[in-house]
Amino acid sequence: MKKINKGIVVALTCFVTILSDSCTKRSDLVPEAPSKLTPDVTLTTPAAFKNAIENLNLTLRIEYFGDAAPMLTESIFTDSGVEGTTDKTTPAQDLNARITPTANLDSDDYNKIGRYWYMWWQGVHDANVIISRINNATWPTPAARDAVLGAAYFHRAYRYYRLVHQFGDVPLILKEETAVNVSYYSTQRMVILKQMKTDLEFAATNLPVSPDKGEISKGAANHLLTKVDLALGLFDDAIAASSAIINGPYHLMTTRFGIVAGDPTHNVIWDLHRPENKSLGTNTEAILNVIDRETLDGATPNGSQIMRNNVPMWHNGTILTPGLHKPGIVDAVTAEFPLTYYYGRGIGRARPTSYATQQIWTDSGPDLRHAPGNWVNMTDLVYNNAALKSGSAADPAAYGTHLVQYTAATVNSVFLNGAKDTIRAWFSWPHYKIFVNPGGVNILNATSDKWWSPPRGTNTDWYVFREAETYILRAEAYVWKGQQALAMADLNVVRARAQATLFTDPTKITIGTILDERQRELYWEEPRKTELTRIAFIFAQTGIPSYTGKTYNVATFSQNNFFYDRIMEKNDFYKNPAVVTNSGNHFTISPYHVLWPIPQSDIDLNINGHINQSKGYAGSESNIPPLDKIP
Q1: Rounded-to-integer distance, Cα 433 and Cα 227, Å
Q2: By CB atoms within 10 Å of each CB, which of 186, 326, 414, 453 scores lowest?
Q3: pTM, entire model
Q4: Alpha carbon distance 114, 596 (integer Å)
């Protein structure tokens, strides 16, 4: 049993509320806790329970931060992106070959499917410890007890919501495990979701309305409850839960605010995503944030790294001047045009599709989220290599001028290695969303920050839920009910803030419209694979035709689903077999990738039970019917 150092077994048998030295831990997996407690000794006071909840709050941010952040893995199983690394054969590009139950599922150079599996189970365990021991403390009031219990229910429900839409049927554990258990059985996804609905209804009733930023509120519970209700096909309940938020204390930020509110060159979209503004008390749009400051205990150990992940690798010498074909761009911080300070030094891991960078914007009209200054195109950069001025590498006419857009006819003269380098080195991106600098107003006054040398993204707060998504979720519920006019009205609230062209024809509002607006608004906030899978399940459960007229069913879900059809409709990498990386990888995906494989090692350790493998993967042929009621 020494082999068991992570995964479901360790997460459910490591007898701590917060990771302690008695458990194998990885600093890049779980941040350091405010203090290290063992429940038998310390989980006996309200303060200790609050500390345990704070740790669960902290661990939500693991998904967003770090090199090759787990969110990258969520993004590449979607219509909106692929893994952009072109110099290795190991990244998850040829998904048919790379994504198997016995593959490396937890590595920067492969993918983070395993990371999700392990961290969600750790969260389930930690929440269950709190839930099981809630009466061990003497509480000042029943309301104080129930608020902590509600927060624990929220955290367990959040992990299970993600687990069932990443992996499908999984074991359902509702109490603290105090001994090694190797007798788990998979439980039906819908059974799990029904229990999470019950728990979230308790949480929404008993959590505070306006706690400190980063803590779990009534609004956060209702927001997650909306998603669970949608997943269950309870569309009226989803409308009620989302309306409780929209009619409550939350409001979209529609006027300038925060650190650069007086700068006329920016706008409210820029303000909304400044690191310093996300957790301001005046930010009425934020429903749930993760808090990450370098000066706080438990700060992300290597900064957010978001610019490293999400900005193209424009600096690697492949971009040439259009005239004399000389190396045109460098990342020197001392350059006359220090692009690395202006935009960050990326390596293009998160490569968006043309659907995400072009189609949804040209189809939608003007939009602040895609406006100059907020959105960056490669042609906004300039040739800044000082060697262009004179000498053997000179091309003085190009120096300081904007990059020339490549075309199919000129790509081999604009790029050192031809069209293949456009995967990693040439794409546009939402600068307002991912520009994370520690210098505040003056971006050149940030060199002392250790994650700004080179600039790749420092510690920062991040949105998990905000009200813009609540409007889009309620609009989705209306679409499922066939109430397109109401859906259009909710979408237009979000679009009006972005000064986008408003929708006027309700007959054209479909689930495709919902997904488009989610992409415009929620880049690197929504777990898009999770949401695509949830929507695919709804189509299969209800038999409602998609916007293409096609219908689906649960019986053939792993072979025929909306998830795959949407990706093949929009993702030009997966649908075009001619796209090849420098390392020789092709981009492939299959319908069964609607769910991820459960790591085979954890299935093998479960010697007295039966954890089903996701259908389509090796081992699923031995699946048995999952439990249809709470064990």
Answers
A1: 24
A2: 453
A3: 0.93
A4: 9
Q: If phi over 0 gives left and psi between -120 and 50 gives alpha, with beta otherwise, what is residue 549?
A: left
CATH architecture of 8-79+88-251: Alpha Horseshoe (1.25)
Q: Which residues of the chain have pLDDT under 70?
A: 1-41, 297-298, 417-420, 438-452
Pairs from 386-389 (Cβ < 8 Å, separation ≥ 24): 386/330, 386/332, 386/335, 386/336, 387/326, 387/327, 388/321, 388/326, 388/328
Give CATH 1.25.40.390 domain extents, the chain.
8-79+88-251
Give the pLDDT confidence of 360-373 residue by residue, as tens digits. Answer: 999 888 999 999 99
CB of 462 closer than 8 Å to CB of 292: yes
Give the end-to-end CA distance of the chain in Å, rounded to a whole number: 25
CA dihedral 19, 23, 28, 31 (to 10 degrees): 10
Buried b (16+ CB within 10 A) or exposed e, 121-160: bbbbbbbbbbbbbbeebebeeeeebbbbbbbbbbbbbbbb
- Relative to beta strand 375-376, strand 186-187 is unpaired
264: Cβ contacts below 8 Å, ≥ 6 apart: none
C-alpha separations of 550 from 545, 546, 563, 623 in Å: 5, 5, 12, 29
Instruction: Give the β-pairing of 170-171 and 81-83.
Output: unpaired
- Structure tokens that stand for 551 in this block: 């219908």
